[in-house]
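Revision sheet: structure tokens.
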Amino acid sequence: MRRHDLPHHPGQISFPGGGLDPGEDPTDGALREAHEEVGLDPRHVRVLGTLSTLWVIVSNFVVHPVIGIADDRPEFRAEPREVEALIEAPVHRLGEPETAGVEERLRAGISVKFPYFEFAGHHVWGATAMMLGEFRDVIYGSSSRP
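Predicted:
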């Protein structure tokens, strides 16, 4: 979970991320950010591929999700200047129907349905939920949608 005092997406649940350094491609940037924010050692990650590029309208960010796997459970370490709390979400939970839902909210006076995932008592929504939904569809097929 992002710290509540950050300028972009404060208090929201998100994956590690940030801008690319000069000369970095999205995969290099994702591995660097995961190392900086949650202590994930890039030497222990096998990159499997990417998900669809996503434009986050409210912040005008373009996100390039990168999927990787580690042979052993990493020792996560939250960077206290950016990360308020770490929330682990086991991949198998994405395939459980009760993990996903839809919530209706008012946005600029219009009722909008927002998909979300529930992990450890937290609603994960927005761009992070979109990435989780695509990842779930890749793993379990599109029939796993609520």
